[in-house]
Amino acid sequence: MQILNGNEVAKQIKLEIKAEVEQLVANGSKKPHLAAILVGNDGASMTYVAAKAKDCEQVGFDSTVLRFDASITEAELLSEVEKINNNPEIDGLIVQLPLPKHINEKKVTETIKWQKDVDGFHPYNVGLMFKGLPCYLPATPFGIIKLLEHYNIETTGKNCVVIGRSDIVGKPMSALMLNKNCTVTICHSKTVVINSFTQKADILIAAVGIPNYVKAEMVKQGAVVIDVGITRVDDSSEKGYKLVGDVDFENVSKVAGYITPVPGGVGPMTRVGLLLNTLLAVKAK
């Protein structure tokens, strides 16, 4: 069994991005600039946005984090998005999800200018992705593809099962694996006898959001297991919680050929996807 180390792969890709940024600046281009909007005080979101800002610093990007109280109105938030849309100095924008319940996430996503949508959520980018045309790919699926490529994991002709059908991971992940010549099955909460599908998967991607959902008996011997899930579970540690994935790592790792850890697997690669999209946004100009 081999660990798919997202931390190490992300570190290597960030060095490559840094070198490319240095070359762009030397040729007279501006530094890429990524902006993030954070609404409220959700601990996980705050940690994630801080990590993105640190990533930008490491690769030579400029970054801006705009923080707003959870009481901000939808109209006020949309106005802030439009300000960034119209700011030529900012190349990419992410609005950290989830948003407060009184704000329509879909409306916010669709307000972001698609040329600055480095999360890859705008319907225009989604449409281009499904057509196999150049676009900003959703950051998590993009990162997973880069991880598989780094470890030279064969995809052509392989059976890939994606558990989860969200617009952020499940659906786009299935499209990208199709583009990688996999035979793809999407499973979800209404799938009957899910084991009958997962046990045939050469590549199993779990994005269901349920801690330890994927058990060893669900996994084919030697399969590639990608764990997208990350949930805070209370425990007796000093922090008061631990991070748990969708995969029962302890037992599934005894069956799998390759597996991502949580944390340190998909998470760092998601942030790399954002950086790659932001770099692309600058080069597209």
Explain what this protein looks like in three dimensions:
With 285 residues, the chain is an alpha/beta fold. It folds into two domains: 29-113, 3-Layer(aba) Sandwich (Rossmann fold); 139-266, 3-Layer(aba) Sandwich (Rossmann fold), CATH 3.40.50.720. 40% of the residues lie in helices and 17% in strands. The chain contains ten helices and eleven strands. It has helices at 6-26, 43-59, 74-85, 105-111, 123-130, 139-150, 170-179, 195-198, 249-252, 266-284, and strands at 2-3, 33-39, 62-68, 92-95, 159-163, 183-187, 203-206, 224-227, 231-234, 241-244, 258-259. Strands 1-11-8-7-5-6 form a six-stranded parallel sheet, with helices on one face. Strands 3-2-4 form a three-stranded parallel sheet, with helices on both faces. α1 (6-26) runs parallel beside α10 and α6 (139-150) packs across α10 (266-284). The protein is globular. The termini are far apart.
| CATH topology-level fold name of the largest domain | Rossmann fold
Strand content: 15-25%
Q: What's the end-to-end separation, in Å?
A: 43 Å
Average predicted local confidence, pLDDT:
95
Topology pattern, helix = H, strand = E: EHEHEHEHHHEHEHEEEEHEH
Residue share in helix: 40-55%
Number of helices: 10
Total count of strands: 11
CATH class label of the largest domain: Alpha Beta
Which structural category fits the helices and strands? alpha/beta
State the fourth-level CATH superfamily of the largest domain. NAD(P)-binding Rossmann-like Domain
Strands in their spatial order, largest beta sheet: 1-11-8-7-5-6
Total separate domains = 2
Given the C-alpha coordinates, what overall shape results?
A: globular
Rg on CA atoms, Å: 19 Å
Largest sheet: 6 strands, parallel
Which architecture name of the largest domain does CATH use? Answer: 3-Layer(aba) Sandwich
